Amino acid sequence: MEKYPLDEAIYNAHAPKLKWNLDEEIDEEDLSLLPEMRTEIVVENKATNTQLISDTKYYAQTLISSNWTDIERVRTGHLYQIFAYVCNSEFLGDVKGMLLYPTIDKEVNAKFPIGGKG
Question: Pick from 85, 15, 8: which is nearest to 46 by CA?
Fold first, then answer.
């Protein structure tokens, strides 16, 4: 796989493990019951004070329908996962999340600004 150079003076690319933004301190035993939030790709732009958290998915079908309807939608778990990453990021600037799927049958380019985050 080819690497693309980033201007390290402006960009910071990493894959941090995020901590849950809990309202109060809990003991280690209870904390161990929560799933780990391991990001895949996080790019921070120091010039614009923005952070993009990307999570890639590889499925034969990007969108799925349920037992109740034939309407195809984003997989619930994927949306909740990226939403949890964005909400629990400790970055002080503008944080955005992106789900990235390969194009299979049709291209999907949708935007869902949620909770004041783009």
Answer: 8
Q: Are 51 and 14 in contact (CB under 8 A)?
A: no
What is the distance between the alpha carbons of residues 34 and 19, in angstroms, rounded to a whole number? 10
Where do runs of H (alpha helix) occur along the chain?
28-31, 76-88
Going by DSSP bridges, is the β-strand pair 11-14/17-18 parallel, antiparallel, or unpaired? Answer: unpaired
Mean pLDDT of the chain: 89
Give this prediction's pTM. 0.85
Q: Residue 111: what are its φ and ψ, rounded to 5°?
A: -125, 135
Provide CB contacts within 8 A for 3, sequence distance 6+. Answer: none
**Residue 85 to residue 99: CA distance in whole angstroms:** 11
